[in-house]
Amino acid sequence: MLYLIGLGLGDAKDITVKGLEVVRRCSRVYLEAYTSVLTVGKETLEEFYGRKLILADREEVEQEANNILKDADISDVAFLVVGDPFGATTHSDLILRATKLGISYRVIHNASIVNAVGCCGLQLYKFGETVSIVFWTDTWRPESFFDKVKKNRQNDMHTLCLLDIKVKEQSLENLIKGRKIYEPPRYMSVNQAAQQLLEIVQNQRTRGEDPAVTEETLCVGLARVGAEDQKIAAGTLQQMCTVDLGGPLHSLIITGGSMHPLEMEMLSLFSISETSSESQSIDGL
Q1: pLDDT tens digits, residue range 209-257?
Q2: Residue-number span of the structural domain to which 86 is assigned
Q3: Do 97 and 51 share a structural domain?
Q4: How many helices (H) and strands (E) are present in the chain, helices listed first?
Q5: What is the pTM of this model?
Q6: Is residue 277 domain-resident?
Q7: Chain-centre distance of CA 240, in angstroms?
Q8: Secondary structure (3-state) at 199
Q9: Are the CB atoms for 3 and 105 separated by under 8 Å?
Q10: Binding-site residue positions
């Protein structure tokens, strides 16, 4: 059987008891290593689990999934995912491949950023569609996701922004020449995401559009959710450009147009500043 096991968001001990029991009896254990990361490394996980882990990068999972599924019809194979197994569509693809090969599967769930963002006090049922913010390059500066932010704001829904992770990425030159040389890992910070968002806002104004988000829109920055050194900061989008939340992983929330009093009271615990001009969203922080 193929087991997809969520590891939670913090460290080695966040795996469920059920998940740990499965890991310890599987013939092979893969660790998905590109959609997210824990606060501890592979060696720490191996020591706690008592098992050797096989790192599975994007290429392995997306292009050579049959290697992972090999003999899973006659033995147990575990595929470990930071957060919850269904936090990325890649893992749904792995299940579909297994099913076509006649391999049974089982999912062991865990906490993910999608539900753990409730730690800041915003109510989960008031979140709209989640968006991803990617690193811009000199030639690629996508803004299309902003339409979803606008729709969420119009519906008084919060937007969870998942920030880009670059792990085992090749430069264009190395990719063209077929050289297996990889760039150092990069993890987008709340500051970088806020700066790109502000540029999109300014671009929309230049085009004569009325942006759904401004410099004074209330946002929430989160870092290392689930870890002991978790950080949360609530303030304007402009303030998010300079707030220091430390190391990865970061997430950003753009709040909806109106707030429940309990949400406002909770966010006041994490307020960067006591004053802001967008009184509807930030009054009371």
Answers
A1: 999 999 999 999 999 999 899 999 999 999 999 999 999 999 999 999 7
A2: 2-111
A3: yes
A4: 12, 12
A5: 0.87
A6: no
A7: 18
A8: helix
A9: yes
A10: 9, 84, 87, 112-113, 163, 225, 250
